[in-house]
């Protein structure tokens, strides 16, 4: 996720799409002016621009089919919970201070061979 606070979502998507060499496939996902989605990135990564109210940053989202189980796994590795957002995702912080989110996988996005952890 690439956060943007100032300027327009459209301008940010145009810049980051050009910088990363990715097409903008949905300039306003959900029609609320919050997310612009790029086409597939190398290595199967998913990239979006997100409008935020806090200082902008680049952060990772970890997608999981069981968000709570993934949060517990990451806590066992040393991460800590910061905020539960809209009862669907967790903002977390790595032991080294970087923030990231654990989000539910989108419907239809489930992989044939998901990662499993002991």
From the structure above, extract its key features:
19% helix, alpha/beta, four-stranded mixed sheet, globular, 2 helices, single chain, 8 strands, 118 residues
Radius of gyration: 15 Å
Distance between the termini: 28 Å
Counted by DSSP, the helix tally is 2
Strand content bin: 25-35%
Overall SS class: alpha/beta
| Mean pLDDT over all positions | 87
Note the overall shape.
Answer: globular
Sheet with the most strands?
4 strands, mixed
Q: How many individual β-strands? A: 8
Order of helices and strands: EHEEEEHEEE
Describe the overall structure.
With 118 residues, this protein is α/β, with parallel strands linked by helices. 19% of the residues lie in helices and 33% in strands. The chain contains 2 helices and 8 strands, in the order βαββββαβββ. The chain has a 4-stranded mixed β-sheet, covered by helices on one side. The protein has a 4-stranded mixed β-sheet with strand order 5-8-7-6, covered by helices on one side. It starts with a strand and ends in a 14-residue tail after the last strand.
Q: What's this model, at a glance?
A:
With 118 residues, this protein is α/β, with parallel strands linked by helices. It has helices at residues 9-20, 67-76, and strands at 2-4, 24-29, 35-38, 48-51, 60-64, 80-85, 89-93, 99-104. The longest helix has 12 residues, at 9-20.
């Amino acid at each position: 996720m690439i956060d943007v606070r100032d300027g327009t979502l459209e301008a940010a998507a145009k810049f980051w799409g050009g910088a990363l060499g990715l097409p903008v496939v949905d300039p306003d996902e959900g029609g609320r002016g919050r997310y612009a989605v790029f086409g597939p990135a190398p290595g199967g990564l998913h990239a979006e621009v997100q409008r935020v109210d806090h200082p902008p940053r680049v952060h990772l989202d970890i997608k999981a089919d069981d968000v709570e189980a993934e949060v517990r796994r990451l806590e066992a590795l040393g991460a800590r919970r910061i905020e539960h957002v809209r009862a669907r995702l967790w903002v977390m912080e790595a032991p080294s201070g970087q923030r990231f989110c654990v989000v539910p996988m989108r419907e239809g996005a489930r992989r044939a061979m998901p990662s499993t952890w002991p």
